[in-house]
Amino acid sequence: MSKVNLTVSVANDHLKDFSDVAVRCRKAGMNITQEMKSIGMITGSIDESALEKLRIVKGVSLVELERSFQIAPPGSDVQ
Amino acid sequence: MAKGKSKKKNSAAALTIEPAFPQSNETTPMETTGRFLVLMKEGTAKKNIEALKNVAGVKAASTSDFKKGAVNMETLGGAQAVVFESLGVAVMDAPPDQTEAVSFAISGDNPILAMEPERIVYAVADAAEYLRGYRDAVNHLTDKVIGLQAPAEFSAAGIDQSKLTYGLQLTNASISRFTGKGIRVAVLDTGMDLGHPDFAGRKVTAQSFIQNEAVDDGHGHGTHCIGTACGSLKPKKNPRYGIAYEAEIFAGKVLSNRGSGADGGILAGIDWAITNGCAVISMSLSAPVSAGMSFSQIYENVGIRAMNAGSLIVVAAGNDSRRSGFIAPVGHPANCPSILAVAAIDSKLRIASFSNGGINADGGGIDIAAPGVDIRSSVPRNKLYKEMSGTSMATPHVAGIAALYAESDPKLRGQALWMALISRARRLDLPSRDVGMGLVQAP
After folding, report:
1. Is B136 a catalytic residue?
2. Which of A4, B123, B125, B419 is deepest in the core (most CB within 10 A)?
3. Does B1 contact A at CB distance below 8 Å?
4. How does DSSP classify residue B328?
5. What ipTM is given for this predicted complex?
6. What is the pLDDT of residues B423-442, one digit of tens each?
7. Burial class of B263 by CB neighbour count within 10 A (0 to 12, 13 to 18, 19+)
8. Contact B141/B114 with Cβ under 8 angstroms?
């Protein structure tokens, strides 16, 4: 099973029970890196096969795979 | 209520609303659609929807009720009004008596600030087109409400940079009476050289979100961006290059010394900045998107939640264009409707060849522009100063100026801060696709 990094958005009407949503995400197989209450987001990783299960967790509104960013190396013409 | 007149569509005669758009030719009547734009106080779309219901029984919906904000603007998705979740503007198509009731509510104890007839040019098919079209209307309304006037004409030719960088001069940051005092500004980037002499004595809170890397800036990008946004009034060596020189600096390292990062660290940085009460969050980072690609719903939620918490996220539009031949779409996450997207111009007010443009729908437009070509600012010791180019350099100009606005009025937070920035922007002789509302101007 390959692991993927991802971000979960907690639904607006579940921000009050943010921690409970995080518990349910764990139960669905998510390995949580960080719980960010101020923006209602949870980051972590999960087996790709468990993604669909995570999407239907009560209180989860969105699941997106992690993106990466790369700025230009020092000395490049455009930063 | 309707007084039996002006029930005809395309007429606003029954309402005591001045035409929003002064016509250069007085004999040309304003072509209106019969619908109205309503400017509402900052607040959630839910509150604004409630207000429209309470004052006039208008049945309103929010853009967020529709999939990916893709509400059909011709039918308003079947509602009497649609509130643009991110911008506090509603488009209303209600019977005259209800329209009149909304107009009577202006300046009362409710979130309705102003309204004006919708111009015919706005009646287009999709929400993104519509958003582009209504920028000028929003600007006019906010000018009217906030009472802000655009500054006088200036010439970009022959700028003397011996004492002040051209970026500070073109944005009027150099003559602002505001300093950023009392405002926390987060710059989420490659960290900062905490020992740079120009920042001696400044209050800096630094945090690394990159595993196994301290906050020290091993790249140079972060120290440069922080320099533009918050650098000193009296640097060790002229010219002055920093805007909000008394702002409190929050240097979050979300990009490694090699310049790489990922959502996890960036979101953690945003969370840290909001938790610490930063009114401005500057992010000179971008991931390219392809034409037709939609924005990230996650970052859009983050943008909205940040604004609700009083933090405005300002992000570089990206450097993927190769003008004049190729204009790349605004990158991720600047392409989110609730994140301020910054384009780069040069000292002659030309669009930078690399600056991305508003190619994609769904909010993927440019919101504002700032100087971003050959920008002098701080870099780690012992070099101390360097000129760099990029939308990365334009972004902290907007962030620093946002801090000045935030200092000027404690009400200017989140969405209100956004409106202040775009309504005071100087119009440029360039398409809004490239520069949004124009060149950012300091208060």
Report:
1. no
2. B419
3. no
4. P
5. 0.91
6. 999 999 999 999 999 999 99
7. buried
8. yes
- The whole-angstrom separation of Cα B127 and Cα B133 is 10
Q: Of the candidates B84, B155, B173, which has an alpha carbon nearest to the alpha carbon of residue B421?
A: B173
B24 vs A18, which has greater pLDDT?
A: A18
Give B-chain residues touching A74 at CB under 8 angstroms.
Answer: 219-221, 259
Does residue B93 carry a catalytic annotation? no
pLDDT at position B146: 56
Using DSSP, how many helices (H) and how many strands (E) does chain B show?
10, 15
Best mean pLDDT range from B5-9, B109-113, B364-368:
B364-368
Cβ pair B220:A64 closer than 8 A:
no
Residues constituting chain B:
443
Q: How far apart are CA B15 and CA B116, in angstroms?
A: 10
pTM listed for this prediction: 0.72
- B136-188 per-position pLDDT tens digit: 566 666 655 655 443 434 444 578 999 999 999 999 999 999 999 999 999 99
Chain B residues with CB inside 8 Å of A36's CB? 267-268, 270-271
Q: How many residues does chain A have?
A: 79
Q: Which residues contact B196 (CB under 8 A, 6 or more apart)?
A: B223, B378, B380, B381, B384
Active site residue B332: no
